[in-house]
Amino acid sequence: MVAIHGVPTAGTQRLKTKPSRGRTMIALQLREFVDLVLDRGAINIDDVKFFQRDIVADAVLTRDDIDVLIALDRAVPRRCEAFADLLVALTVDFAVWQNRPTGYIDRDKAYWLVTTLSAGEGPTPTARRIAAEIVREAEGCDETLLTFAFDTALRPVSRARRERRLLVS
Length: 169
Fold this sequence. Notes:
about 65% helix; 8 helices
């Protein structure tokens, strides 16, 4: 018999309380990670390794989780490239393969992605990569996200974002 998160999977029915408890645990761990990173104002490679190993290794992410991670990318001035790579991979996997309709970005997903990726001062370089990778990976994509991905690829990074980078440096 195989157990996932301590719950046997063969010959028994899962209790409905287990997934919500697991979801609460992931939400708590994510909140603690966000608090830690925001307090320091940086995401380093050790943070990324911890996040990958201890928080999202077996987790089922939600739109809210992805929204939090994209907001974190926007809010933290110093972050290593490994965080951007992980965020792109997690978001593409969630949007294209874990969320129905599988393999396709329908209108609902496209509106959600455009809204979350363009919040604040406009899309970050990571948000631009996410949009481009989703368009490339998906078997079909609503025109809302296609237009966003192509427009942001052609548009320069906002002046306010460049100035903030200079101030942080």
